[in-house]
Amino acid sequence: MIVEVVGGADERPEVRVVDTDDLTSLHLALGEVTDEEADEALRAGGLGRVEGDTGHLDTAALRAAAEPADAPGDWGQRWDAMVEHARGRGWVSEDGATLQVHVESAAGA
């Protein structure tokens, strides 16, 4: 699953959740936006925030945005498995409210 923040010089950054059926990985991909623009877009969308090269995504909001209306019967189980994997790696906040994810920038930085 990928959370994208895309936009351009004359566009307001937009947040999209894509590849929602691939629950084997999760990262935040930034298009041609600054870290500040990405942070603002994530906060405005209620999905999280960016701190340096780390994204912090709201677990419940991400699930609500990602779960397809016609999700296969095992989607919820695969979601739970992804979150548990992240928890085992220390990527879930103590209260379970946020997932820590890697940020990939279009600038390569």
UniProtKB/TrEMBL annotation:
Name of the molecule in the record: Uncharacterized protein
